[in-house]
Structures are given as structure tokens and as C-alpha cells.
Specification:
mainly alpha
Length: 48
């Protein structure tokens, strides 16, 4: 169990270092798709 947690943390850290925020955000929001869509809209507004 500890190995699995360590592997997940390492993978997450690598994703962040690679600038893969979108993928990480999606993974964290799988159980809250609506919240993810709302954040996506806000992000799009900021990009404009």
C-alpha cells in the first residue's frame, strides 16, 4: 500500500514538473466533473 502511495506521489510530482496541470486537474476532478467544467470556463475567460 505504501509503495502504491509513493508511486502516485512521484507520478503527481513529475506531472506538475512537466507542466501537465490540465491532466492533473482532470484526474483530481473525475468525481466532480461539473466543478471541473466551471474551472475550465474561468480559465478560458482569463486567457481571453
Amino acid at each position: 500500500m505504501r509503495k502504491l502511495l509513493l508511486a502516485f506521489l512521484t507520478l503527481t510530482t513529475l506531472s506538475i514538473e512537466a507542466g501537465d496541470y490540465w491532466c492533473l486537474d482532470k484526474r483530481l476532478s473525475i468525481r466532480a466533473d461539473y466543478g471541473y467544467m466551471r474551472r475550465q470556463e474561468v480559465r478560458d475567460l482569463r486567457l481571453v
